[in-house]
Design goal:
alpha/beta
Length: 346
């Protein structure tokens, strides 16, 4: 069942979650769009392999972001019934507006934004062609965004992305709210659907703990128009991340799924590593800081989230953080993106 966003049709309403640092880049996003879904490039510290990343982080990130978008768009340009290339940009990022502008300039079809309510997103996007999708964790947050954007920018979200508490990475809930939020997950889908009922043509995409065809069918039955999966796409041939990162998923057991505190001020869901064990007990002070996140105070931070994610992205798993959804332990084989699409839509 295709999804329509204004003048654009998404043949298969499956979004691949934006995963950073260095997990979902041009290769994975292009493979997803080739199957008719929405491939999402994560802008988080995307310039980590650029030679000037530590001396000139902003320019390195913008350069790499533009290159990844162009590579993904180029890879699918002759594909019939293709989906879209989107970019996930954390609202907590320093230089947020410049990253958004760079993504638009490079030809991104959609900007997805969370890690805080992206109140100013429409101000950085002059083109109505680029679809804007805020990530929210409640009906109240959806209402706030809609009212704020309408009043200030005369623009409504093109879709709403509800990310539940079983998602990987940074979560839009306090740690003590996670269990209750999961109990209310399906009710929240219906509440958000009601909240956006007055916005004609604004679909609801649901994410967080969605792994199988049954998971997809259940959220659709509760009113979702589309789904987003991140974890399932990590163990694909096309995923851009280091093979050892994928192995961490393949080797994970259910008891290895942990929730950690992040310097961003939000809990994060990850796979247990030597590093996650250490930071529970002691502070690991950042040795260099490129001030990547607005809410992070490096002199107080329990550790540097960028360095921990970079280590994992480069294959140093034990000294890193491997963000993952709650179902990562279910990963038991490598797949292709096409196989996942067939499995979810058969």
């Amino acid at each position: 069942m295709p999804m329509t966003l204004g003048d654009v049709t998404i043949p298969v309403p499956i979004f691949q979650g934006g995963m950073g640092i260095g997990v979902s880049l041009s290769r994975l996003s292009a493979a997803v769009a080739r199957c008719g879904g929405v491939g999402v490039i994560s802008a988080a510290q995307i310039g980590f392999l650029e030679p000037d990343f530590y001396t000139n982080p902003k320019e390195a990130n913008i350069r790499a972001l533009k290159r990844n978008i162009r590579e993904a768009k180029e890879a699918i340009k002759d594909v019939p019934n293709k989906g879209l290339i989107a970019v996930n940009i954390m609202y907590a990022s320093r230089n947020y507006d410049q990253f958004v502008e760079a993504a638009v300039e490079a030809g991104a079809d959609m900007i997805i934004s969370g890690a805080g309510l992206p109140m100013s997103l429409p101000g950085a996007v002059k083109s109505n062609k680029v679809k804007l999708v805020p990530i929210i964790s409640s009906a109240r947050a959806a209402g706030l965004i809609i009212r704020s954007w309408t009043k200030k920018y005369n623009r409504a979200p093109d879709a709403i992305l509800f990310e539940g508490p079983l998602a990987g990475g940074h979560l839009g809930f306090k740690e003590e709210q996670l269990d209750e939020a999961q109990e209310q997950f399906y009710d929240t889908i219906m509440e958000i659907k009601e909240e956006i009922a007055d916005l004609p043509g604004c679909p609801l995409i649901v994410a967080g703990g969605i792994y199988t065809k049954e998971d997809v069918q259940k959220v659709l039955a509760y009113g979702a128009d589309g789904v987003q999966l991140g974890t399932r796409f990590v163990t694909t041939e096309e995923c851009d991340v280091h093979p050892r990162f994928k192995e961490a998923y393949l080797n994970a057991k259910k008891e290895d799924m942990v929730v950690i505190k992040s310097p961003v001020g939000m809990p994060g869901r990850a796979i247990r590593t030597n590093f996650t064990e250490q930071v529970e007990k002691v502070r690991i002070p950042p040795n260099k800081c490129n001030r990547c996140l607005t809410p992070c105070k490096s002199n107080e931070a329990p550790y540097c989230i960028t360095q921990a994610l970079l280590n994992a992205a480069k294959g140093d798993i034990e000294n890193g953080i491997v963000f993952s959804g709650s179902n990562a332990y279910r990963s038991n084989k490598m797949e292709t993106v096409e196989e996942i699409f067939k499995d979810l839509t058969s």
